[in-house]
């Protein structure tokens, strides 16, 4: 006799298929939102591309906005994972008033190099780069999450390092401008690489190596100038 009161246990195979479907929808939606924007990409296109019916999007994400927010949350979580180890070391250095400025400068260079790595590597990197780029010009649902994540993981730690190097407070407008100029040299690589600016794909190993090298050289030059000024 079947015990109808026994607790329901979902089968592993069903769960795995459900997660596979959810992931397939997310990956398809990321590419389409990156290519066409939030308004331009339709749920019909996404469902067709993922090989599912429209109700599947509603089942897993509620609606188009919920799907878009899920993508942004995935990107933010990947950023957290990518920056976690370095973020811990940067916090420790900033928490100590005795950290040498040369060490702070080295951490700033490493922060920006790690940011380059974030925007040039990983799954669906082209689409993630375009989502980053759209964040600068669109007001789509969930972009507040991406902006907050970028401020917490990139902008604020770099601002604190820049300010300590110059011996000025973080609320000094000059420090914000200097910080934006440094970060901007990485953000530019979120641009659409199909434009005829970089040779090849723009994300081949040699191009990425050059990006990291030039960003480090520029940042080191700025740090040397700050250290020299503070020594006078």
What labels would you give this structure?
single chain; 232 residues; mainly alpha; Arc Repressor Mutant, subunit A; Tetracycline Repressor, domain 2; 2 domains; 9 helices; elongated; disordered N terminus
Walk me through this protein's architecture.
The structure is a single chain. With 232 residues, the chain is mainly α. It has two domains: 11-62, Orthogonal Bundle (Arc Repressor Mutant, subunit A), CATH 1.10.10; 71-231, Tetracycline Repressor, domain 2, CATH 1.10.357.10. The protein is built from nine helices and no strands. The protein has helices at residues 12-40, 43-50, 54-61, 64-95, 101-120, 125-135, 143-166, 173-187, 205-231. Helix 1 (12-40) packs across helix 4 (64-95). The longest helix is centred in the middle third of the chain and has 32 residues, at 64-95. The chain is elongated and about 70 Å long.
**CATH topology title of the largest domain:** Tetracycline Repressor, domain 2
**Rounded radius of gyration (Å):** 22 Å
What is the CA–CA distance across the termini?
89 Å
- CATH-scheme architecture of the largest domain: Orthogonal Bundle
Strand percent estimate: under 5%
Please state the structural category.
mainly alpha
Largest sheet: none
The CATH superfamily name of the largest domain is Tetracycline Repressor, domain 2
Order of helices and strands: HHHHHHHHH
Number of domains: 2
**In terms of per-residue confidence, which ranges show pLDDT below 50 for 5 or more consecutive residues?**
1-6
What is the assembly state of the chains in this entry?
Answer: single chain
Number of helices: 9
CATH C-level category of the largest domain: Mainly Alpha
Name the overall outline: elongated
């Amino acid at each position: 006799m079947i015990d109808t009161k026994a607790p329901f246990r979902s089968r592993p195979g069903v769960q795995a298929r459900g997660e596979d479907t959810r992931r397939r929808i997310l990956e398809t939606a990321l590419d389409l939102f990156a290519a066409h924007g939030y308004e331009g990409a339709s749920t019909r296109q996404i469902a067709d591309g993922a090989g599912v019916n429209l109700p599947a999007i509603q089942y897993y994400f509620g609606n188009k906005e919920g799907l878009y927010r899920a993508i942004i949350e995935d990107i933010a979580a990947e950023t957290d994972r990518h920056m976690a180890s370095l973020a811990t070391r940067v916090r420790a250095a900033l928490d100590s008033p005795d950290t040498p400025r040369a060490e702070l400068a080295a951490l700033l260079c490493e922060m920006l190099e790690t940011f380059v790595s974030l925007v040039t590597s990983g799954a669906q990197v082209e689409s993630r780069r375009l989502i980053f780029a759209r964040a600068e010009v669109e007001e789509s649902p969930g972009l507040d999450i991406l902006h907050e994540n970028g401020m917490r993981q990139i902008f604020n730690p770099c601002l604190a390092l820049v300010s300590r190097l110059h011996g000025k407070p973080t609320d000094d407008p000059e420090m914000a401008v200097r910080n934006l100029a440094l970060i901007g040299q990485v953000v530019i690589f979120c641009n659409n690489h199909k434009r005829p600016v970089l040779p090849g794909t723009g994300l081949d190993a040699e191009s990425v190596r050059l990006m990291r090298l030039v960003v480090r050289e520029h940042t080191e030059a700025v740090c040397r100038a700050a250290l020299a000024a503070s020594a006078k």
